[in-house]
Amino acid sequence: MAKKLIITEKPSVARDIASALGKFTNHKEYLENETYVITWALGHLVGLAEPEDYDKKLKVWRLVLLPVIPEEFKLKVLEGNRDRLRVIQKLIKRQDVEALINACDAGREGELIFRYIYEFVKCKKPVFRLWLSSMTREAIREAFRNLRSGEEFTNLAAAAKCRSEGDWLVGINGTRAFTARYRTLLSVGRVQTPTLAILVHREREIQEFVPTPYWEVFARFASPEGTYLGKWRNGEDRVYSQEEAQTIVERVRGGEGEVVEFEERQSSEAPPLLYDLTALQRDANKLLGFSAQRTLDAAQKLYETYKLITYPRTDSRFLSEDLMVVVEKSWSMLGDCGYRELVAGGLPRNALNNKRVFDKSKVTDHHAIIPTGEAIYWDTLNSDAQKIMDLIVKRFISVFYPDAQWAHRKIHTRVGEDLFVSKSKVLVEPGWRKVYGEKESDPQDFLPRLEKGGTVSVVDTWFEAKETKAPPRYTEATLLAAMENAGKFVEDEELREVLKENGIGTPATRASIIERLIEVGYVEREGKTLIPTPKGMELINIVEAIPIEELASPQLTGEWERKLRLMEKGDYSRDVFMEEIKQLTVEIVEKLRNKEYQGELERIHVPIGPCPLCGAPVYENQKAFTCSRWKEGCQFVVWKTILGKKLTRTQVRKLLEEGKTEKLYGFRSRKSKKKFSAVLVLDSEGKISFEFPTSRKSSTKEE
C-alpha cells in the first residue's frame, strides 16, 4: 500500500503528529502506520558547503583569494548529522513511499530545512506541505485535511535560499576579508553588523555627550477650590543660569496669579494589539528582564510541548475571522484556569467586528500569538513558561476590553510677567487596564476646576538644579524595536505595523542575532542593557571609514529583508536579489583590498586594566583576561567563565580597579549543581575568591 513520508523538524513534533493521527508503530528511528511514515530532522541536517569544499586552497584565509562566489552552491551534511540523514534518505527511497509531506516549522527556516534535505538526496517524488499554526490535536488533524501542494511554497523556498546564500556570501567573504586585512578575527554579517551599528552609534552619542546644566522654577498656588503646582514656562520650561532662576523666584514669591487658561478634556486609549514574537520579547524584557532568546525558548516550549499557544515565530498582530471559534474556546477555558473574574462578562457581541483584532489583510504566514484553548495546568509549567503564558493570556483578554478613559486638565497661571503651566492626567475608566490590575485614579490627583480670570495666591516658590542627560543605552526591548523598524524606533504600535516590512531580520532570528553579537565579543549584556565592547566599536569604525555603507546601514538591511518578503509573494526575482548580493560581496572585498585604515588594531586590543601582580596591562583573549607579560612568567589570569558564570569586560574591569565585583548571579556549584550568587574578590596575590555578603561566608574553593 502506497504511503506518504512525513518529515518534521524535531522528534517531539513527530510524536505529536503520530498521537493526533493515531495507531503508529514505533521503529525507534521512525513511526509508521498503514497510511504514513513519520521521521524527523534535528534542525538543519544539510547546509551550504564551506569554501574549501569547492577548492582546497581556500582553506587559507587570504585576501588575494577573495571573493569566493560559487557559480552554483553546493550542499553538505552538517557535522554530526550523517546517521540521521541516512535514515531519512533510506525512507525516502522506499518503494511504498509515493510522496513526501513537509511538516517542518511553517516558516522560511522550516522550508529551508526540508528543501535542503530534499535536494541533497536528489529526491524527485511529489511534495505536500503541512502548515501548522497550533500543535493541538484538532489543529494537526485539520491541517492534514487541508494539505497543500509543495509548489505553493516555491517562492517561500526561493526567499529562504536567498537568505541562506546571501548570508553565506557576505558572512564568509566579509569575515575572511576583514580578518586577513587586519590580522585579528573580525566576524561580519549581512544582518549582525548593521545591528551592531545601531548599538555603536548610540554608544558614540553617550561618549560624546556633554551635559548642560539648567534650572526649573516651580510655584504652588492656592485657591478656594484647592492647591496645585505649576512649572514656569516662557517658550522653554527651563533657564540656563541659577541667577535667572533665583530672579524669577524672587519676582513671583508672595504674589497673586491670574488663571489665564483652564482646559478640560477626555481621551480614549485603545487596548494594545495582540502579540507577535517581537512585541512579546520586548514586554518580557521590560517587565521580566528576560532576554529575547529566553522568551523565545519559553514560547517555543508553550507551543511545542504544552500546546497552549499558537505558532510563536510570527510577525503578525492580527487574526483572521475564521479563528473566532478558537477565540471563543480560549475565552471559555480561561474562566477555569485562573482568570474567571476577567472573563466573567463573556466576549463582547461585536468582537468579530473589531478591526484591531480581526483583520485578515494584516495576517501574514501566521496570525498573532493567542492561547489555543487547551486547559492550562500551571503546576506543570516551569517558571519561565508560567510568566510568558501569563503575558500572552492577559494581552489576549485585554484586546476585547473597552478603551481606557482618561481625564485631562490644564491650567495656565500668570504671575505678573511669568507664566506657570499645570497639567494632570487621571484614569477615570480603567477599561482594558483593569486586566493589568489598574484602578481609577484617586480624585486628589485631579487639578482643581478653576474659572478663567480667577485669582490664586502664590504660597511657595523654588527652583531645582538639573542637567541634560545622555540618551540611554539600548535594552533588548528597545533594540528589538529598532531592529523591527530598521533603526527607526517608533512607540506607536499601529505605526510600527506600517514600518515593519523594513525590519532587520525576522522575529524568529532577532534573538539569535543578539546572542551572536555577544558570543563573538562585540557586545556585553549588563542586566537589561546591551553595551558594545571596544572591539565592536572599532569594527564599525573600520566599516564606516572604508566606507562599506551597506554593512553598517540598518535601513539598507531592512530593504533587503523587504525584498525577501516580496520574493515570498512572487513580487521579486531570486536572480536579481542574488546579483545584488554578489555585487555587494565584490565591493566589500575590493574596498578592503584597496583602502588603508590606520590605528584600528591598537583600539581593538584595549586593555581591561592593570595586572595586580606586575602592573602590566591585562588584555582579553578568547577564553580569559590575561596579563600581557605572560611570556615573561606573570601568571595572572581571570577565566571568562567561572563555575558556569560568564564574566563581562565591565565586571572584570571593576574587579581590577576596586578589588571586587558587584554581587553576581548565575554561578553553579560543582557538587550540588545548584545556582548561587556571590561577589568575586581579588587579593594581593592575584587569587580570586567568593564572598557571600548575606551569610558573611567566603571561600577560595570552587564549591
From TrEMBL:
Residue stretches making up the Topo IA-type catalytic domain: 153-589
This protein's record includes keyword Magnesium: yes
Residue ranges of coiled coil: none
SUPFAM superfamilies given in the database record: Prokaryotic type I DNA topoisomerase (SSF56712)
Reactions the enzyme catalyzes: ATP-independent breakage of single-stranded DNA, followed by passage and rejoining
Ranges where the Toprim domain occurs: 3-136
EC number from the UniProt entry: 5.6.2.1
PROSITE patterns per the UniProt record, alphabetical: TOPO_IA_1, TOPO_IA_2, TOPRIM
Name of the protein in question: DNA topoisomerase
CDD domains attached to this UniProt entry: TOP1Ac (cd00186), TOPRIM_TopoIA_TopoIII (cd03362)
Signal sequence range: none
UniProt-listed Pfam families: Topoisom_bac (PF01131), Toprim (PF01751), Toprim_Crpt (PF13342)
Organism listed in the record: Thermatribacter velox
This protein's UniProt keywords: DNA-binding, Isomerase, Magnesium, Metal-binding, Topoisomerase
Family: Belongs to the type IA topoisomerase family.
